[in-house]
UniProtKB/TrEMBL annotation:
<dbReference type="InterPro" id="IPR005024">
    <property type="entry name" value="Snf7_fam"/>
</dbReference>
<dbReference type="GO" id="GO:0007034">
    <property type="term" value="P:vacuolar transport"/>
</dbReference>
<dbReference type="Pfam" id="PF03357">
    <property type="entry name" value="Snf7"/>
</dbReference>
<keyword id="KW-0175">Coiled coil</keyword>
<feature type="region of interest" description="Disordered">
    <location>
        <begin position="1"/>
        <end position="31"/>
    </location>
</feature>
<protein>
    <recommendedName>
        <fullName>Charged multivesicular body protein 2a</fullName>
    </recommendedName>
</protein>
<feature type="coiled-coil region">
    <location>
        <begin position="112"/>
        <end position="139"/>
    </location>
</feature>
Amino acid sequence: MFGFREPKKTAREQAREAKREIAHGQRDLEREKMALERQEKQLIVDIKKAAKDGNQAGTKILAKQLVQIRQQKDKLSLMKLNLNGVAMQASSMATQQLMVATMEKTTKTMVATNKQMDMNRFQKTLMEYEKQNEMMNIREEMIDDTLIDAFDEDEDEENLVVDQVLSEVGLDLHTLMADAPKHVDPMLLQMPEAPKEKQATSLH
C-alpha cells in the first residue's frame, strides 16, 4: 500500500523466524502426544475392565484403538525429530548465507582498495623515497667528514699559536719537552725506603 515495501530480511532474521515457527510446531506436537498418552492410559483401563467382564468383542475393539493411538504417538515422535532436523538445517543455511555475505563484502573492499592503489604511483613513490634516503645518508657522511677536518684544523692552529707565543719569549716547545722530567710512576714515589740493616745484609 502506498508503494511501501517491507525491507528484505537478513539471513539471521529469517533463521530466527524459522526457529520460532518450528518451536511452535514442536509444542503443538508435544501437546497432542500428551493427549494421546492420556487416551492410551484410559484405554488400558477400559480393556482390562472389558476383559474382566468377559466382553470379548469390546476388548478387541478397544485393543485396536490402543494400537492406532500408539501408531499416532510414533508418528508424532517422528515428526518432532524431523522438525529438529529442519531447525538445524535452517540454522546451517543461515550461517552459510552469513558467510557468503561476509565474503562478498570483503571481496568488494579488496576490489575497491586495488582500484584506488595506482601501482605506477606506488613504484615512483618508493623510488623517490630510496633516492631521498640515499641523499640524506650522503649528506650525513659529508657533515661528519667536515667536522673531523674542522677539529683537526683547530688542533693545528692551536699548536701554531703556542709555538708563536713561546718563540716570542725566546723559548722553543721542542726544547721544553726535551728538558721536562720524565714521567715517574706515583706508586714508586710512595714506596718506603728499605731499612739500612736489610740493605747491608743484602750486600753480604
